[in-house]
Amino acid sequence: MSDQQPAATPEEPKINKKQAEKEARIAARLAEEKARAEEKAALLAKYSDVFGNAELLQSTGYNTKEYTKVPQLSAALADKTVTVRARVSTTRKKGKLAFMVIRDENSSVQAMAAVDEARPKEMIDYIGQIPCESIVDVEAKVTVVDQPITSTTHSDIELQIQKIHCISESQRTLPFTLEDASRREDEEGAKVNSDTRLNCRWLDLRTPASNAIFRMQSRVCQHFRQYLLDNDFFEIHTPKIISAASEGGSNVFKLQYFNRDAFLAQSPQLYKQMVLQGDLPRVFEVAPVFRAENSNTHRHLTEFVGLDVELRINEHYYEVLDLAEGLFNYMFEKLATHTKELEDIRAQYPFEPLVWKITEEKIKELGIGIISENKQPTDQYEARVHNLESRMLRLNYPHCIELLNTVLEEKLAPTDDINTTNEKLLGKLVRERYGVDFFISDRFPSTVRPFYTMPCKDDTRFTNSYDMFIRGEEISSGAQRIHVPEMLLERAKSLQVDLTPCKDYVDSFRLGAWPHGGFGVGMERVVMLYLGLSNVRLVSMFPRDPQRVTP
Ligand code: ATP
Ligand code: MG
């Protein structure tokens, strides 16, 4: 195309005039807009101390202000001026007033601003446009209200905003609303599906139930640790990159380790046993466990947190069970004290409180054996408790089978495996007969236990092993372990497990070995089942399963 203009025509001066007028109008409008913008900027600058977007926080000040947390606000602070950093739940403009609800840590408060000498109407407009979920700093006077405010947790006070600055603005459109994500399954209204929530976990965690679930999860680990530390245990850290699969089987993740293969640990099993042979008498670990389980169930993850325990025993694996019962009793008792969290969880996911102790009446009525009274293993009883104080139920495996056979059409043999469906059914039958949601089953058939499990002396079809259940689902497995190398090798051979890659482990028992036992607990399972939740993804912060490795 040519750059040359076409030759001028007689019409041109007219057109030029029109054009010039148009351009002038545009210029005038632009000038007007610029003046308005400058005026606005000048106003914002004038009031920048009162409202507006805060300067990027870059660690230039230090303790220049005293912040009050939303939960710390109270009528006792009436007429005092406080500075609060919180998240915006809602904003609303009404004439010369602006209202907002701000929140933090499960606590919310109403804040309002009014036009006055120190605060122009632009401040009301500014508040009205702050996107929900943004973070703001509010300097405000605390006032006591006449009418209780029902929409906030602080119902008796309100904040009269003097200054407000946005610290971090949220995107205006959210992937989902917290209201939708907080709805009970049986409630009317939109729900948010699990994947959408998990894809934006940082938003999902702001719902009261999710937030409370992870507070409870933290407590589970805290109480687990505390009880064990109080009972002479040492916390250990075993490697997660290992040269041989710790539990055998196919569900191991292989990884490239420089020029050879390595594996991610399926449990700290072999290591915690080796540590015991190094004369640490009682050990525990809280650490990730990796299992390449290509099954999509409500209770399996490919990475979960293992709560592992291993200790010396003097005579009997009951010593491990006594410890386990003490531990779980402590954890359950402590968990029940976190009432606010439990309330928040129950509001979205209703559940019955866990019953873990059988009543003394039932013990008498059913003739349940009391182990500590006769100081003998009391396997002849269908059911046992350690003593009348602990009252946590132990059933031997053949008795679990008998119980199942009372309702199953296709009867099970005493050494048959109990599948997941029957496990749930067993939980229901135990609940009906014994009135508890927690029980331990012991003497599992040797065919369903790993090679390192000590066989029963009286009947080698069975082993000195046990599982623990909450609401009919497994939370823990454990056993007395074989501490004799030859016996280990023999057991492995008969189960067709190749122990060549685990030579170090076998050798660790050749230099004098302490008899021992232990158990491994799935942390997410405990949280899920204590809270009666239906899916392990609800209690894993960033769950990993065959379909999900992000976020
Ligand atoms: P399950 O029969 O439920 O698959 P398991 O018997 O294979 O479990 P163990 O090897 O006994 O599991 O592991 C100890 C504990 O770790 C289990 O009792 C359970 O609480 C937890 N656990 C095992 N596998 C998983 C998993 N994939 N996701 C979450 N927790 C798990
Ligand atoms: Mg198990």
From TrEMBL:
CDD domains, per the entry: AspRS_cyto_N, AsxRS_core
Keywords: Aminoacyl-tRNA synthetase, ATP-binding, Cytoplasm, Ligase, Nucleotide-binding, Protein biosynthesis
Keyword GTP-binding: no
A GO CC term assigned to this protein in UniProt: aminoacyl-tRNA synthetase multienzyme complex
GO biological process: aspartyl-tRNA aminoacylation
Pfam family, one: tRNA_anti-codon
Top-level EC class: ligase
MF terms in GO: aspartate-tRNA ligase activity; ATP binding; RNA binding
Aminoacyl-transfer RNA synthetases class-II family profile domain ranges (all copies): 214-551
Regions of compositional bias (Basic and acidic residues) in chain numbering: 11-23
Region (Disordered): 1-23
Subcellular location: Cytoplasm
Main location: cytoplasm
Family named by the database record: Belongs to the class-II aminoacyl-tRNA synthetase family. Type 2 subfamily.
NCBIfam families: aspS_nondisc
Designated name of the protein: aspartate--tRNA ligase
Organism: Angomonas deanei
